[in-house]
Amino acid sequence: MQFTTSFVPEIRFGNDLHRTVGKAAAGFGARRAALVIDGFLAQSGLADRIAAQLADEGIASRFFSSFSGEPKLRHVREATEMATGCDLVIGIGGGSALDIAKIAACCAVSGEDPMHYALAAHPLPANPLKKIMVPTTAGTGSETSATTIFTGPEGRKLWIWGPETKADLVLLDPALTATLPANLTAWCGFDAMIHAFEAATNRNAHYGAKLYAHEALRLIGGALETAVREPQDLEARGKVLLGSCHAGIAIDNCGTAIAHNISHALAGLAPVHHGLATALGFESTIGWLVEADTADLNAAARALGLQSASELPSFVSGLMDRTGIERALPAAFTGFDDAALAAEMRAPENQPMRRSTIREITDGDIGVFAARIMTLPKTL
Amino acid sequence: MQFTTSFVPEIRFGNDLHRTVGKAAAGFGARRAALVIDGFLAQSGLADRIAAQLADEGIASRFFSSFSGEPKLRHVREATEMATGCDLVIGIGGGSALDIAKIAACCAVSGEDPMHYALAAHPLPANPLKKIMVPTTAGTGSETSATTIFTGPEGRKLWIWGPETKADLVLLDPALTATLPANLTAWCGFDAMIHAFEAATNRNAHYGAKLYAHEALRLIGGALETAVREPQDLEARGKVLLGSCHAGIAIDNCGTAIAHNISHALAGLAPVHHGLATALGFESTIGWLVEADTADLNAAARALGLQSASELPSFVSGLMDRTGIERALPAAFTGFDDAALAAEMRAPENQPMRRSTIREITDGDIGVFAARIMTLPKTL
């Protein structure tokens, strides 16, 4: 056995922890904090309340919330500008807010444009700004991963990757996730569960990541349905949030696989929620995947409470049914055919997820999967 | 539920990883490395081989190995002096080597004497030297904990505690532990297992620490006997080493309990191996402890492969038998009686471990436990 697990940031978990952001910032000796926060959270007054907490600790702050959807180059540029001159970056929101905050914390110290670091063109600065991450969706695991994604000038997805992007402190506050609508709770929860599943079963899977991935599967598999159906059940919300955080640690070490190849390929065609796209990709491939019948697939199935990997396809479809995930694509996908999706699935940037999949994916397989996805109704 | 888990360093696991120390040091951009290494390892040529690896990377190095037994003030002073002017500290050896290295990495940047930081008299420097820890015994978990212990000028145990003492990178190389004699393998392994058990079951136990502690119990409980009986079984050695590392993470968050109260109290009387003392303390108290019958005690028992906490006393005694742990104290304990041990168990520095124990420990209980220990033969 041989493995490496990247460092895991300090993690604090508890209801109403968002009231301790100011004290946490003071713990880093911060004097000027830059806050990247989802627009609707800022409008709800949360940005002002955080600013007041920071002011109570003698910390000046400013915030950036002029973004929506997946991060674009102009968002990460504006956030970098806002963070320049600060000594701490705080990200509060979904994966986009956290990704923007992580990039800004790196670029603000070096003065370089985010494009300078995209696709590993140059090494990241060794001493980025300190970062506190407060996820308000349970999905991307961005709070514990070294990955960020944004859309480049030509509309392509670009990555900035490196331990320098990782959080120093993660605050997990289930109460912050309670207002997330049911469909987003389900989509994000599936994304997190699939992170854990793919990290635990792909070709890069190892003991160190499986420790976190299996715990994530236990937590999310046991609580996602309740979190969707009973939005105020903070215990269930907390389990999904914690599971998402563990899943982030798992993908930080072992990456993902075929379901994420498909979801990134879909995003290359038209805007679609990443969690929904990943769930659709997962359901479309899990029956094919479990034919590999590896020890890792069976162990992941057991972590989900199943007897064996062969039960996974019906488990996945059943959980999608019970959490109300409609098998459909946004209307923006009208006009794209399966050949278009297959081409995206074969695009260079999506090959790591194809190659890491435990079964070899032939071009014929890609054609079959693309057809399954693109025959879904385009009605969302 | 509410908890905090401190950061976990990057962990690399694999046979012969000690051959990658030079490359790991280069990864930190080091130019001058200070090596704290057990004397017998240095004499075996390991220090020279590490120095050659470092030289291959253009890194100058010096080493300190003039210590034996538990660290004394002069050892940490000499190591600090050696590390001053370096930009990286590497600790290779048992818990003492790692503790000395961790202290030196802090004091070398500030120029302060180790006594300046003892018992939290002053805050540690915010930016200590980078630290690579390479444990060669599977026991203390010092490679993942924030604690260091040394003996002060008046012979008292002193602590330096803080996240600043923690490793940046841990290299776990089972091959390095293969020459450890059977009795030390057993003593250190019990120490690690008890770390995990106490962290998972004391009053401070929480979800975040139990994740690591239960895994440590699974690993050590399943492999310790083989590691002792088949010293060249690197798979078993590796499981105990990894378990010890996880147990270090667990105590880093939740601390220990009664068995460590007793082992520290014993060390206050006369020199005794910490692992042996802890095992003796554990066996003497586990029957009393499990009467509490808490959910945590039962969960820890299950992680050890048992049905319930009530099976723990016979499990512990059986494993001590099978790993050849003699129930005896060193001859240096002749002349001390149970009142002397009871007084140490009630000493202020040992009260945190008394208070954290899940059952209240009366002065009467202390008298009973001290009598059990001090009636052991003093023949080692």
Automatic annotation (TrEMBL), chains A, B:
PANTHER family reported in the protein's UniProt record: ALCOHOL DEHYDROGENASE, HYDROXYACID-OXOACID TRANSHYDROGENASE, MITOCHONDRIAL
Biological source species: Rhizobium subbaraonis
Presence of keyword Oxidoreductase: yes
Keywords: Oxidoreductase
Protein name: Alcohol dehydrogenase class IV
Catalyzed reaction equations: a primary alcohol + NAD(+) = an aldehyde + NADH + H(+)
Lineage top rank: taxon: Bacteria
Domain Alcohol dehydrogenase iron-type/glycerol dehydrogenase GldA stretches: 10-174
Upper lineage: Bacteria, Pseudomonadati, Pseudomonadota, Alphaproteobacteria, Hyphomicrobiales
Cofactor(s) of this protein: Fe cation
Keyword Oxidoreductase: yes
Domain Fe-containing alcohol dehydrogenase-like C-terminal, chain residue ranges per copy: 185-344
GO molecular function, one term: alcohol dehydrogenase (NAD+) activity
Entry similarity comment: Belongs to the iron-containing alcohol dehydrogenase family.
